[in-house]
Amino acid sequence: MSDFRARMAESSEARKSRVVLALDLSGPVDDRVRRASAVLDRVKGGIAAVKLNHHLLLPFGLKGVGPILEACRAEKIPLIADLKLNDIESTNLNAVDSLFSAGFDAVIANPFVGFKEGLEGVFTQAHSLGRGVILLVYMSHAGAAEGYGLRDASGEPIYRLFARRAKDWRADGVVVSAKSGDVIREVRNVVGDEMLIFTPGVGTQGGSSASAAAAGADYQIVGRSITEAGDPAEALKTLLGR
Ligand code: BMP
């Protein structure tokens, strides 16, 4: 088991949770870090990991989100950087250097960009530091079928090719829509039992964490149903069925 997967397992077991909190704060920018810290504080005992996206990283940068990174480190909550890396290798490496130096445990990348001079160096760098790489395989929005659902000349859907890439490239996890149970099952068949399947799209986007889990998902990525709830801790409890 890779270091990242081991840290996810340890955190998930310690807090009895399969929820990856997408700490996506909208609304007034100025107090987003404060509001995010408050949400994190309310739910930190019941989440397996935290995922940060443009909502905080764009306005505040890695220095500005320091208090959140620090709070996660203090609680041993794995941190996932969701920049969906999708560039040439030297740019990708520049990004992961900053992210790993700031303490992120894993990065999400787009397999569309390819291996050679694309993601190869990201995998090498991540694994040499005990960090993880998670690949997008099938996204949760309505238009996902227009990209990840395209078929190659032989009629095979691109998401199946991406699932094979995830296995061949030794990815630590894949992202598959919680709303596409059949795709989750299909991807699980391709990637095997070791690979972590992260499923976004539950709650606000209409998917169900129970059916994603039943289809073979390991973790549910949940944002607004928690971050925008009047009481984030209650919302998490409901999600966890407690
Ligand atoms: P929410 O639960 O509020 O819909 O948030 C889902 C989170 O997962 C967001 O950060 C979004 O960018 C991300 N995400 C997604 O919704 N679907 C995908 O296919 C891939 C994602 O990373």
Description of the molecule:
Helix 10 links the parallel strand 7 and strand 8. The two termini are 30 Å apart. The chain is α/β, with parallel strands linked by helices and 242 residues long. It has an 8-stranded parallel β-barrel with strand order 1-2-3-4-5-6-7-8, surrounded by 8 helices. The mean pLDDT is 97. The protein has helices at 3-15, 32-43, 54-64, 66-75, 89-101, 115-128, 144-147, 158-168, 181-191, 209-215, 224-227, 232-240; strands at residues 19-22, 49-52, 79-85, 106-109, 132-138, 173-176, 196-200, 219-222. It is built from 12 helices and 8 strands. 6-hydroxyuridine-5'-phosphate binds at residues 22, 24, 53, 82, 139-140, 175, 177, 200-201, 203-205, 221-225. 6-hydroxyuridine-5'-phosphate binds next to strand 8 and helix 11.
Helix content class: 40-55%
Strands across the major sheet, in which order? 1-2-3-4-5-6-7-8
Q: Which regions have little confidence, pLDDT < 50, spanning 5+ residues?
A: none
* Straight-line N-to-C gap: 30 Å
Roughly what fraction of the amino acids lie in strands? Answer: 15-25%
Q: Give a short account of the largest sheet.
A: 8 strands, parallel, barrel
Shape: globular
Mean pLDDT value: 97
> Structural class, judged by helices and strands?
alpha/beta
- By oligomeric state, this entry counts as single chain
* C-alpha Rg (nearest Å): 17 Å
Q: Which ions and ligands are bound to the chains?
A: 6-hydroxyuridine-5'-phosphate
What sequence of helices (H) and strands (E) makes up the elements?
A: HEHEHHEHEHEHHEHEHEHH
- Helical stretch count? 12
Quantity of strands, as a count:
8
